[in-house]
Design goal:
About 65% of the residues lie in helices and about 0% in strands. The chain is mostly helical. α2 packs across α3.
Length: about 60
Amino acid sequence: MTAVEWLCKQYHLKQDIEIVKQAKEMEKQQIIEAYHRGYANAISVPNKEYNPEQYYNETFINK
């Protein structure tokens, strides 16, 4: 669960309203950028292909 999703849950906000969608997209981009920076600094998971989008989806998208 991301911070935006947590906040929505706490305030019972619908996640399909435009401002929430924008906040979630901004948070996603920040997470992907942080992953990219970490990988660029040789902080990576062994035997794991570098893919920040896949990392975000595996880590933060509810299944």
